[in-house]
Structures
1.
Amino acid sequence: MAMNKKSKRRLVAMQRILIAGILLFSVSLSVILMFRDRLSLLLVSNVQTELLDITRQNSMYVDRKIAGIFSSMEYVARDLAWSRDGTARRVRYLTEVNNFTRVGAVDIYGRGLEGPDIRMTDFPGIKLSLRGERKVVYTKRTAFDNLNAMVFSVPIQMQGFIMGSVYGILDVNALKTMFNFSAFDGNDESFIIDAEGRMFVQARKWELARYMDSYLAGWQQPDAAPELVRLYTKVRQNRYGVERITMPDSTQYYLACRPLSSVSDLYVLDVIPTYVVQERITGILNSVTFILGIMLLLLLGGYGYSEWRQLKSQERIYDLAYSDALTGLGNLEKYKLNMLELVRKNQLKALAVIVVNIRGMKAINDFMGYKFGNTVLQLVADKLKAGCREGESGYRGNSDMFYLMWRGCDRGELERRLRELLDGITEVYAHKEGSRLYLTAGVYIVRLEDFVSEEEKRKQEIASAVEGQLNINAMPVEYGGMALDVDESWPMDVAGNARLAGKQIVQQNCNAVSFFDEKVVKKMKQEKALEDGFQAAMQNGEFVVYFQPKYDVRGASPVLSGAEALVRWISPEHGFLPPYIFLPLFERDGNLETLDRHVFELVCRQLAAWRQEGRQLVPVSVNVSRRNIAQGRRFVDEMERTMAKYGIDKELIELEVLENDASVDEDTLITFLRAIKSSGFRIAMDDFGSGYSSLGLLYGMPIDCLKLDKGLFDGWQEDMPDSDTSLVRHIIQVAHETGRVVVAEGIEQKYQVELLRRFQCDYIQGYYFCKPIPADEFAEFMEKERL
Ligand code: C2E
Ligand code: MG
Ligand code: MG
């Protein structure tokens, strides 16, 4: 059951961790995805920048090259303006430095100054240069060599007067070497285009070149493809632009474009298929996602591990705080917690709180050692736990106090279950240890409705009355809905009632179950009143001594040989009270020693009075409670002072000490008895045979008399076999052998007297001869007996 709760708690915690984990996972995942998205955008723009960079490089190279070509040509043109000498050599020089396939010079009519005549219509660029501009024009299949070429031309002029033009023809393919082809793993293609979209310098891949050529035709026109329009607009505004275009066959490319600065209307265009970019980006994104994923997994793992550790340590703390280390049962804190939880849940109408106690646990610990005591506690705990059903639980309080929370409120059923459980424990223990272990159980049936506050009840009544009036669902008021008027101390109050019920058990040496009821409370209250009334009773002289005669049965007929002083409380309030009612109460708060001294004084005073009256006195035994043993010599001194006060001899007083029990250790008892003995008192050991003492104990005890407990004769019957009386016979024999006399107590029957006489018992005290009687009656009795 406890296990169930533990695993339930664990399950809840796991659920919590799982939910938090899922939450963490989804948050992190969306962050990663968002990041991936952003990164992808960043990468795209990065790629675009890179692309533009390549374009810039390319355009710079081309510009520089073109500028170089032009300046070399202008240099030659200037020379030619001054003199034609060496024209052929200079023109050759131009061919060498510029890789021209052909170089020439013409006058304004196209007549060859160097090289052949040309038709102006074939070379519109040259025609334009005659207007004073340097010019480069792309010409497909030039008139000379049928080459795709760039025709460079610069005017030959002097003092603003144009004399002709120097031209050079450059195979476009020569420019290709200037382009950076290593970018994007060689997937980048560079072109130079003019305003109409014609290609000056073609790409390496002629297929793409052809493709682009037709796509780009008229790219600056307003009716061109929208992405081309956009590209051109950007180029015009910023002197650069990048666009993603989709070709008719739906392949996609990035186009980056820049105008050349050395020649108007020429543009460097870089083309790269989007899949190249995409692959690259996806590659980066995948690695980044992978790393983030690993980090997320580590994070989740770390989170899960730390939560698990925390759960474990919480469980450990919980165990330490709420369970009993020895038995594994819940402790009192846990009991309180569960009781309050029960109230909070408000489902049960009634339950039983049971306090189970092991009889003689202290003696077990003292005589058998704590280790053994612990195994007893464990055994009992295990059995109690096993005796709990679904929804019930067991706890261990202090020492040998166990608490059970059981369902149900049927006394008969509860008693049957409890008896079965306790008897089961006794049986198992007997089987294991060969001796008897008994337990007591005090039961308090908690009817939770008793704890509903008056206010709450009133509210419910009003509510039900209103419902009744309006006739809406005139249902009975459900207890389940009512708030209970209990506080933190309630669980222990309730357990206190169960404990009280347990304390009421009077039967000895058996398992016993007792239910709390109002009578029990009343009795408790009475006991409390008695306890509280001690001082007043002492002052008012309410304690009186009765005397029970004791007979010497050794002779032919019994002879009165003494008496035992037995205290009685004659209370105006409570009536006549025998000692078993009040002595245990006084034992609890230390009044017993006071009472013993008081009784001793009353006896001495009585003896002195009888002597005064001239009566012949018999020895009187006075009971000394165990409480006095610890006082040792002090007690003896006080007794002696009292006797001296009344002039009573020690032969007239015998002290009765109870046989030892677990509360006094043997050495202390022997020291005490020696102190009494050495001051000359006779000592009787009372109630011998009722408890733990053994005959062996007799040898070391300085006692004169053994008082056999009534219990030894209780099982006797007339005409029983000898074997049934052999114990008593044996005790008497050993007592005599060790020089003690024997008194048999509680003798009521004639056959008992006869048997005891046969066994050579020395004295008999019992109702058979006389009950305890008041002092004046006893005085008369003495007179009578003496006659
Ligand atoms: P105890 O010292 O063993 O006293 C004998 C008890 O047995 C007395 O009970 C007596 O009335 C009872 N008794 C004697 N003969 C018979 C019999 O034939 N049948 C039955 N059923 N009972 C018999 P009582 O007077 O009720 O005292 C009970 C116990 O209280 C005493 O047992 C003694 O231990 C204790 N006690 C009595 N007076 C004092 C006292 O002044 N001081 C102390 N410390 N204890 C006292
Ligand atoms: Mg006695
Ligand atoms: Mg006795």
2.
Amino acid sequence: MRLVFLGPPGAGKGTQSARIQEKYDIPQLSTGDMLRAAVKAGTPTGLKAKAIMEAGGLVPDEVVVGIISDRIDEPDAKNGFILDGFPRTVKQAEALADILLKKKINLDAVVELKVDHNVLIERIERRAAESAAKGEAIRADDNPDAFRKRLEAYREQTAPVSAFYASKGALKAVDGMAAIDDVTAQINRLLES
Ligand code: AMP
């Protein structure tokens, strides 16, 4: 099973990918996680990505395309994978198509979690206020300003990726506003059909 998960930040992609990962025993490949690991380790990629990520912008296409191309070649991704947070631009989607063609593999589905952006903003503002009240740290790019910027990047650069896959007949949409278990059930039905 080879899947792409699309949806804005905070839509629940990570939660749903983790469930599919377990069900199909395939790795969840999150470019966000890989970039955060690179930032933490202080690699050249991490140094390049840190400020962009903290401001809620997108890391250059060639950086994430290189990361994903290498990661797909790892032995644990041989029988499948879930791409979470990639592709985020049409350029990345086109690069992914080339990579898969060269590796002679196909995507089985592209799943989009559809959610109301205003509800996401309300949620993140509430969470930030609760964390601040408890004196807890929040992820640098989860502060409401950076989060708005991430949503804007999604609207401008990632929404066209949905259209890209829809034009190929590969896009399957799911109501991401439903309860977490209902969303999982919708995804399972899609993948089994
Ligand atoms: P995420 O955990 O998927 O929300 O990603 C966190 C941050 O990492 C994003 O706001 C971007 O700055 C960066 N990032 C993750 N994936 C990509 C990607 N495919 N293209 C560009 N930037 C990315």
3.
Amino acid sequence: MSEKAFYVTTPIYYVNDVPHIGHAYTTIAADVLARYHRLRGDRVLFVTGTDEHGQKIQRTAEQQGITAQQLADRTVTNFRELWKTLGISNDDFIRTTENRHEEVVRHIFRQLSAQGDIYKGTYEGWYCVPCESYVPEAQIAEDRTCPDCGRPLEWMTEESYFFRSSRYARPLLEYYEEHPGAIRPRGRYNEIVSFLRQGLKDQSVSRTTLDWGIPVPDDEKHVVYVWFDALINYLSACGYPRDEEKVRTFWPAVTHLVGKDITRFHCIIWPSMLLALGLEPPSLVFAHGWWTVEGRKMSKSLGNVVDPFEMVELYGRDAFRYFLLREVTFGLDGDFSEEALVQRINADLANDLGNLLNRSLQMLEKFCDGTLPAPGPCNDLDRELQALAGDTVAAVDEAMQRCGFDEALRSIWTLVRRGNKYIDETMPWKLGREQERERLATVLNSLCQVLRTTAILIAPFLPDTAKSMWEQLGLPGTPDETGLADSPWGGMPEGTRVHKGGVLFPRIDMKEWSERKLERDMKKGKPVDPGDHEETIAIDDFARVELRVAVITAAEPVKGADKLFRITADLGYEERTIVSGIREHFTAEELIGKKIVVVCNLKPAKLRGVTSNGMLCAAETPDGKGLSLLTVDSDITLGSRVH
Ligand code: MSP
């Protein structure tokens, strides 16, 4: 493995929102790549940060009654905190309001103007404020809403500076034809190439409609368009233009990880800007897919936004990191569910990985006083395991060069499972009992070599787990310091004293977990999982249920029954006595005066000696703890029929 420079970035995140699983996903992926390349011995620069200018931020700040800078300062701490919580190892954190960045933006703006690549003109068109972009006519439907976010577009006319992207369509196309690996996955590459074939319109790069941005040099009526500003962060974070050594090292050795929604900015506008500056386009832009949550789009209104802080608190950061990268192929859309996460914890982490460590160390302690014996002669089974460990290192390296996180993890787990099977096949407990010391020594030694290699390979993904395995194996330093070059078989020397510690991942009891999950969901007001639905009925079937509006005029406890109320419901044309089991949820005072919906044609039934003549309707949470009466939204006449 040869040393090389590796620069990896995440999108810089807008500061108008709290961090969610989407942000966590890209940043974890970038962290794993950065850690992996460090492990390989590469010179790594890993940068994330925040995108703090623009209309979206200005408007959110106005709504909150604070300045945009205050909003940015507040939100940036959430991001920083989250990266700490997730164990993110970024080398730098860049904010677009920092002087070091603003200077570079001004420098680039001046340079491109001086060389005629930026000029002044007029812009008009349909603009989406939340997306901060003009939408081309061809993409606008009759209702004039944004094709990306669905919100209404606004017509805008403004004097604007333009970047001459049109000039770079051809050179960029040629670049991509020569570098088909520069955009991944392949589908995105094809999309970008066919888009470029139609040529490019010049790109508006300034705004006069807001002031929260970097003023255009020598024309302060304008501020630099937020995307032009934001993309430049990738250069300012690597020292452009002053730190020539750093730029030479890390440019264009850069991998931009982005969500699929922002591919065009990264694969068209950004590389055109770079070409104009005389720089090479990025080595790789990898566009990942989007997460839905339990089959639905993630949204605040559905109350299903996944909070990464909560996931870490509940399941630990390593499990969360593992799940995100193992569950879905990077580049494809995926569905997040806590249940799937828990199942992976139990199967892959507790059962496969945890067991391998536990069983191996247990036997080492039992039969060898916790000290690794020198291996005896090897047979085919041992050699096969050793070969698999070597192949795994190679397979992981190959997959990681392509951001194939799930494949890399699958390869590692093939080795882990093989390790467990090797235990079953060699039966070291039997060898120990029968005093077959030499064979036992080979088996336990092999297992420890597998564990050591595994700890190194999982270190980028599960850094805490790798460290804990390392300590339990009694190895010096850390897996990160050891690196991949040192991962081959035999790296754990005989005589090493192991220190068996606690279990890596305790198994989660599914039944208990579902109960607690239900409670959490209800506290958050999350919609109920409907479970099995009733069979379909015809409208006539429903019409047979006579529902009418009534008002509660009295509610008395039923003697000898804690849960029952004897309710008097006035239907206007008659009064009914209804016995209802809602006493745990309401006091009589709360009930009296409520306009409710009553089933009037239910067969009377006797409850604790009182005849109940009808039933009131209420919504109940699945655990029966929450109850809400069905009422009417206006003062409608009593007795009115509900259809
Ligand atoms: N500020 C711009 C990026 C500028 S980069 C020069 C931006 N910021 S953002 O905060 O809106 O978003 C960031 C990232 O989150 C995008 O890459 C987007 O794809 C990602 N995601 C937002 N929701 C997501 C999911 N539900 N799933 C996965 N990623 C998602 O865009």
